[in-house]
Design brief:
The chain contains 16 helices and 7 strands. With about 550 residues, the protein is α+β, with helices and mostly antiparallel strands. Among the domains are: about 110 residues, de novo design (two linked rop proteins) (Up-down Bundle), CATH 1.20.1440; about 190 residues, Alpha-Beta Plaits (2-Layer Sandwich). A hairpin with a 2-residue loop joins β2 and β3. α3 runs antiparallel to α4 and α11 runs antiparallel to α15. The termini are far apart.
Length: about 550
């Protein structure tokens, strides 16, 4: 009986040990599974997709801003309603919304809400901008040729029938109206608006001396001018409000929050991986102590370790590839934001940055910065005759040939359409700037063939300069406005020439003024090496 009882006690003790061993094995396996799942909690591909979505959203927002800028300067946008990017941007926003639950804390959600509000406000403001911009652009395009047509009428029969003093007065008034309106378009102010109102009243008062046909043309000019007076300040205000929405800053904040959250998750994954390796080492000790009964478990853990090592190597390789792709995309986006896609030249945004820095350097060095505003003559005829493909090739030829004649430190930019800008630093004399302008004009006029078609183009060039502290105080906008106005004077003087702004500042005594009609007759610049414009100094 005692033997039977001892056997029962022994059997119960063995079963108890086996049960405890089984529970221990289950707990050990459960702990191993928990650690493994924590190392695989978040797929790195999700983080990469979120980053790519953010990059694409930034690119679309930048394209949206570029379309608004094109509409502002009068260049037609690919989408007249300025909403081509919105469907894709909304889709990307929904994808980012779906990724918010993967983040930690409320920072990403708050940043997403700010971005959503900024984009909604920006969409509303752009809608208002799209309403007011077309009549303003139409008025700006209509007014110069309408004034020219009206002046032609005054020089014909209408001028002969009306009193001579009224004709002369109206001609002078029209010149003043066009000049002040263009100035107002560049920098609107109440004083300029009042001045233009006075000129419009003078024009209206002289209508009585002319025929109904001329009066209709005068009314059309007055209407265009009124549209510019009304729409330009409104459009500038809308652009300022669009810029103040801060969509770019909200995007950057959201990207930082996603990066911070995913970095925390990745850190937790790495910590779990360390725990997993430590736990695997503990299991190896237990396997060595357990002997042959746990050899099968040992093989399983070995396979798990190999799987983890392979996953780690694959993860590092994928992260390296994604990082390289993102860096390449970032460089491409940066270049697109700073360069013209057709000619490869820097764009308006980049030239204004360079001009601002150049004026700051000129302030420190008491040097001269020269700006040349170039508008091609005859380019519209090339487009109308041979098509836009030939016109694009002409623009590329102009960019390449003019660039070859500039120094390495000079800057050539394309503003859009057939408008270019040259920026020169450390100019020592007015004559040096004129030589550069003549070289640019000669290079443009030397283009007589494009895409197998004969072409004939020239250029009207406006030259303005700023010196030292006083030039820096006036600022880049004033320098651009002076060069632009001088270019229009070159147009009015007969095209194919260059005109120096009277507000230009130079080092030393002012050089002798050259009559505009003789600017084309200046002696050619002596070149050290005509095949390499960077090896000579055209500035003098």
């Amino acid at each position: 009986m005692l033997t039977t009882l001892a056997r029962r006690i022994t059997s119960w003790s063995q079963r108890r040990r086996q049960l405890l061993a089984g529970v221990a094995v289950v707990l050990l396996a459960l702990m191993l599974a928990i650690l493994y799942l924590r190392t695989e909690a978040v797929d790195p591909a999700i983080s990469n997709r979120v980053t790519l979505n953010l990059r694409e959203l930034e690119k679309l927002d930048a394209e949206w801003d570029a379309n608004i800028l094109r509409a502002h300067i009068g260049r037609p946008s690919p989408d007249p309603k300025l909403t081509a990017q919105l469907p894709r941007m909304r889709d990307l926003m929904e994808r980012l919304r779906d990724a918010l639950p993967l983040t930690q804390g409320s920072g990403a959600s708050a940043a997403f809400g700010s971005l959503e509000t900024a984009l909604r406000n920006k969409e509303q403001l752009v809608g208002q901008f799209a309403i007011h911009n077309p009549p303003l652009r139409a008025a700006l395009l209509h007014m110069p040729p309408a004034v020219a047509d009206l002046k032609t009428e005054l020089s014909g029969i209408e001028g002969a029938l009306a009193p001579a003093r009224i004709v002369v007065r109206l001609d002078t008034t029209l010149n003043a109206l066009l000049t002040e309106t263009l100035r107002y378009n560049i920098a609107p102010s109440p004083a300029l608006a009042s001045r233009i109102d006075e000129i419009l009243g003078d024009v209206a008062a002289q209508q009585i001396a002319f025929s109904p046909a001329v009066i209709d043309k005068m009314d059309a000019v007055i209407h265009s001018c009124r549209v510019i007076l009304e729409k330009r300040p409104l459009e500038n205000m809308l652009e300022a409000q669009i810029a103040a929405t801060g969509s770019d800053a909200a995007l950057e904040r959201l990207e930082r929050e996603f990066d911070r959250s995913f970095d925390a998750v990745l850190l937790e994954r790495e910590r779990s991986r360390v725990y997993l390796f430590a736990y695997a080492a503990l299991l190896l000790v237990l396997l060595a102590w357990a002997g042959w009964r746990l050899r099968r478990s040992y093989r399983i853990i070995g396979e798990v370790n190999a799987s983890l090592q392979s996953a780690n190597e694959t993860l590092e390789h994928r992260v390296a590839e994604r990082t390289a792709e993102l860096e390449a995309q970032s460089r491409q986006l940066e270049r697109l934001a700073q360069h013209d896609s057709l000619t490869g030249l820097i764009n308006y945004r980049q030239i204004t940055r360079l001009l601002e820095r150049a004026l700051a350097r000129a302030d420190r060095r008491d040097s001269v910065v020269v700006l040349m505003f170039i508008d091609l003559d005859g380019f519209k005829a090339v487009n109308d005759t041979w098509g836009h493909a030939t016109g694009d090739m002409v623009l590329q030829l102009v960019a390449r040939r003019v660039q070859e004649k500039l120094r390495a430190e000079d800057a050539l930019a394309r503003l859009g359409g057939d408008e270019f800008v040259i920026m020169l630093e450390d100019v020592t004399s007015r004559d040096g700037a004129l030589r550069v302008a003549r070289l640019a004009l000669e290079q443009i006029e030397s283009i007589v063939e494009a895409d197998g078609h004969p072409v004939s183009i020239s250029a009207s060039i406006g030259i303005a300069s700023a010196r030292g502290q006083s030039g820096a105080a006036r600022g880049q906008e004033a320098l651009l406005a002076d060069a632009d106005k001088a270019m229009y004077e070159a147009k009015q003087a007969g095209k194919g020439r260059f005109v120096v702004s009277p507000q230009s500042q130079w080092l030393g005594p002012t050089a002798r003024e050259v009559p505009r009609e003789r600017l084309r007759e200046l002696p050619p610049v002596i070149e050290a090496d005509a095949t390499n414009g960077a090896d000579r100094d055209p500035i003098g």
